[in-house]
Design a protein that fits this description.
Sulfite Reductase Hemoprotein, domain 1, single chain, alpha+beta, 21 strands, five-stranded antiparallel beta sheet, Sulfite Reductase Hemoprotein, domain 2, 4 domains
Length: about 550
């Protein structure tokens, strides 16, 4: 992984020093909250419902054991002993004291981390496939490009006051585990007919109050042209993007209002202007960065012990069935650690849990961890002979839940428990759904099913692309939950369809239970997933299940 050089170190330290002075002036009253706001946003500090919240960047979701250990230290020293992993592959601390934030940033700098551009109208943390560098289906590790984009976008003088926030995601294969089609720019590694590696570039995706699927801007951009091409995209958006209405300020609206052909023409014109100015310097940086992402030295060892443990231990076997993915190296597996224990807050990890995960990465995982956009933690490189030891250690700290991709592996935003923008609670709904299906012992019978919950229209919980999406709204002071069906956040990205009227807080879990039990009666076989059944049958039978009274009226 990338390690900060002297320039990176000096840059981050200077930012910490600047912010320390700004915080001191806010505390002594020299700065009002309105005057302080742009400074804190530049450093990832939000004022939420009950307290400040610090959002720490985890670029493209990659970190090492020392960094994870430091995140645990911050949780203990400055917060309430936990952190919250987000759908942007970041971590948030919900209870820091303002006076402590500069010290938190200084401690982060000690391990090559920061909170720069995790908020504000800038290019946010670049995200990536959480299996990058390990996945068997990958053409090329996309993280060097993600790191190049991070360096280019950090403190870019032209892009510090964009019309609105701007998000970029990258993936190294056709299978989309980074939801690239729901980003302002989505980048996919591809090969052309000449077997050259380049990038498909998608633009104008996004969720929120106006969900849109990105459109292909170019089927192939060469390695040498990618960075100036991205700069051309953001530059055109910076000029055309609307600043009169923040709800219409994202590039998806710019694309919709101007059309893909016009936007493509303007971007190509801008690209021709700026491409010669790069002079290949970005490729020199990229070559240096690529050295940092060389694969580890994989060991050759028997997996007989792993196979025997699976036969002897049903709980371990269940965990390996759900929480492992295929690795590119023989004898290895990708381990997904569920931060979704039944009844727990999705994405919340205690400091003790963070330290255990860091230790496991050191002992068994080539010193690498990943944060997924699904709010779980990944050990990307694990030999199968070490899996039983890993499972045992995870079980001791409540991290061995065998539910990756199942109904309790819920994405949920913080909702009204923390967020000042939220209109309804998300966390209690997620907890209740997970607990209910654990009680019913139906989770594995149901199979793959992605439930995503947002506590407001901003859609931080990605509800639009959930197989079952739940959106919490305020209806005359009462929480009301809308259900969407048929969403998909993979390479076949689909925006879910609203099923009908919303449900009250006491009705939403029974409605989900009714819906899932109904699916079990509709599917052709155990192999037909909820999404496959929905696509085969359409929305009508599922709406009948959700609204039985209306279905009975129609039948009469």
């Amino acid at each position: 992984m990338y390690v900060y050089n002297d320039f990176d170190e000096a840059f981050v330290r200077e930012r910490v020093s600047q912010f320390r002075g700004q915080v001191a002036r806010r505390i002594d009253g020299s700065l009002t909250e309105d005057e302080f706001k742009p400074f804190r946003l530049m450093n990832g500090l939000y004022l939420q419902l009950h307290a400040y919240m610090l959002r720490v960047a985890v670029p493209y979701g990659t970190l090492n054991s020392a960094q994870m250990t430091q995140l645990a230290h911050l949780a203990d020293k400055y917060d309430k002993g936990y952190g919250h992993f987000t759908t942007r592959q970041n971590i948030q601390y919900n209870w820091p004291e303002l006076r402590d934030v500069p010290d938190m940033l200084s401690d982060l700098a000690d391990v090559g981390m920061h909170a720069i551009q995790t908020s504000g109208n800038t290019i946010r943390n670049v995200t990536a496939d959480h299996f990058a560098g390990a996945a068997k289906d990958e053409i090329e590790d996309p993280r060097p490009v993600a790191e190049l984009l991070r360096q280019w976008s950090t403190d870019h003088p032209e892009f510090q006051g964009l019309p609105r926030k701007f998000k970029i995601a990258v993936t190294g294969c056709e299978a989309d585990r980074a939801v690239i089609r729901a980003h302002d720019i989505g980048i996919q590694v591809v090969r052309n007919e000449a077997n050259e590696i380049g990038y498909k570039v998608i633009v104008g995706g996004g969720l929120g109050r106006t969900p849109m699927i990105g459109k292909v801007l170019s089927d192939f951009v060469s390695k040498a042209d990618l960075l100036p091409y991205c700069e051309a995209i953001v530059s055109v958006y910076n000029l055309l993007g609307r600043r009169d209405n923040k709800y219409k300020a994202r590039i998806k609206i710019t694309l919709h209002e101007n059309g893909i052909d016009k936007i493509q023409e303007l971007i190509n014109e801008r690209f021709e202007q700026i491409q010669p100015l790069f002079g290949g310097i970005d490729q020199q940086f990229l070559a240096e960065i690529e050295h940092s992402f060389a694969p580890p030295a994989f060991k050759v060892k028997s997996t007989d012990g792993y196979d025997a443990a699976r036969l002897a231990n049903p709980a371990f076997r269940s965990w390996t069935d759900t929480n492992l993915s295929e690795h590119r190296a023989d004898g290895y597996a990708i381990v997904s650690i569920s931060i979704k224990q039944h009844g727990a807050t999705p994405g919340d990890a205690t400091s003790a849990q963070m330290r255990v995960m860091a230790d496991l990465a050191t002992k068994y995982g080539h010193d690498e961890l990943r944060i997924s956009h699904e709010q779980n933690v990944i050990l990307p490189h694990v030999h199968k002979s070490d899996l039983l030891a890993i499972y045992t250690a995870l079980r001791d700290v409540d991290l061995a839940t065998a539910n990756i991709g199942l109904i309790s592996d819920i994405i949920a935003c913080p909702g009204m428990d923390y967020c000042a923008l939220a209109t309804a609670r998300s966390i209690p709904v997620a907890k209740e759904i997970a607990t209910r299906f654990d009680e019913l012992k139906l989770e594995h019978e149901v199979g793959p099913l992605k439930i995503k919950i947002s506590g407001c229209i901003n859609a931080c919980g990605h509800h639009h692309v959930g197989h079952i999406g739940i959106l919490g709204l305020d209806r005359a002071g009462v929480e009301n939950y809308q259900i969407t069906l048929g969403g998909d956040g993979t390479e076949s990205t689909t925006i879910g369809t609203r099923a009908g009227p919303g449900f009250g807080a006491d009705e939403i879990v029974p409605a989900i239970e009714r819906l899932v039990l109904g699916y079990l009666s509709l599917r052709m076989s155990k192999e037909e997933t909820f999404l496959q059944a929905y696509r085969r049958l359409g929305e009508a039978p599922f709406k009948d299940i959700l609204y039985p009274e209306k279905a009975a009226q129609n039948a009469a």
